Amino acid sequence: MKTLDWNTLFGERARRIQASTIRELLKLTQRPGVISFAGGLPAPELFPKGLAAEKAAAILRDKGEVALQYGPTEGYFPLRAWVAEWLGLSPEEVLITTGSQQALDLLGKVFLDEGSPLLLEAPSYMGAIQAFRPYGPRFLTVPAGEEGPDLEALEEALKGERPRFLYLIPSFQNPSGGLMPLPARKRLLEMAMARGLVVVEDDAYRELYFGESRLPSLFELAREAGYPGVIYLSSFSKILAPGLRVAFVAAHPEAILKLTQAKQGADLHSPVLNQMLVHALVQEGFPERLALIRQTYREKAEAMLSALDREMPAGVRYTRPKGGMFVWMTLPEGLSAERLFQRAIEENVAFVPGSPFFAEGGGENTLRLSYATMDRARIEEGVRRLGRALKGLLALV
Ligand SMILES: Cc1ncc(COP(=O)(O)O)c(CN[C@@H](CCCC(=O)O)C(=O)O)c1O
């Protein structure tokens, strides 16, 4: 059998395509007995399985010829209209995508050329870095903390550069858990408006707030200010079911049109049955569902934080999130999260080492813990195991 060296056959862009650390780790965490804090996998107990089974059967029975046929690239219109109304927009400002992950890839395809400056936070969502990297951007980063990006550093970065866009996650940032306060949001918007800077706001965790109410998105603030340059992403993954792969982009109709054209070349349209199912599921008890989800993650976060407070040795720092799915941990300087990961896996506990969240490198002593998937007992046991692994590593230094 003749062998081929595929690496010589792939295109130049393929050399920039790297595996997703989260996806690779998830394979590892399938091992029985492993308690995984790795993937931001929503709590399976929250999936509306019974209602989904009932609605899917009805859709196929009563509207099977629509559900099983090709559909419009923009999305199943009743769902687009529902999303538009939910956001206070017109349907022409909404595009349904196959997860926000596809929206990130389409944004790279539409906005980025080889060497284009692209501004994002450090750390930032590694799935976005993975989506953008094949288009060959020149990454520029600003530090992100518990209150969002460092606005002084942002101002400095914008002095000498015209980035194609700024990508950020203002609410419950992945991985750092940061929540941008309202004044910072307004100041960032002023900076964007003054420069005509396009801002991509990834609001995947918009509904997962633990406080009384949701802060206005940059997108909402921009509409109030009459600025069309914010492109808004959110998803049904964290509020319904990630396996359905249904999300949306909200933006100026001209941006939506170009992203739609790019989507035609990617997948023609998102699965019609899944879109119809999402549309059916949001018709019944949606506000109550959101309240249950917030309560569930608030309790899981509290379980993890109280376990960390008990089990973590001195010198280990971690965030206390006000929403979202993640705790961001910083080990004492010089300690490697990758080395900790090796010891943790031996203790049957997993997390995501932090460095893949840094587009320009760094973060070797950081790691991300997701409390979303496990129940309280496994969160407590997993943190005990993590504590054992950490104390073992500290004993070596
Ligand atoms: C900021 C942000 N933007 C987009 C996504 C992807 O959401 P979709 O499910 O594609 O709508 C995510 C989902 N990230 C999770 C899920 C990744 C799950 C996986 O790769 O299996 C994580 O960071 O673990 C996100 O956090």
TrEMBL record:
Limits of the Aminotransferase class I/classII large domain: 55-386
Key words of the record: Aminotransferase, Pyridoxal phosphate, Transferase
Domain of life (superkingdom): Bacteria
Cofactor(s) named in the record: pyridoxal 5'-phosphate
Keyword Transmembrane included in the entry's annotation: no
MF (Gene Ontology): transaminase activity
CDD domains in the record: AAT_like
UniProt xrefs under InterPro entries: Aminotransferase_I/II_large, Class-I_PLP-dep_aminotransf, PyrdxlP-dep_Trfase, PyrdxlP-dep_Trfase_major, PyrdxlP-dep_Trfase_small
Name of protein: 2-aminoadipate aminotransferase
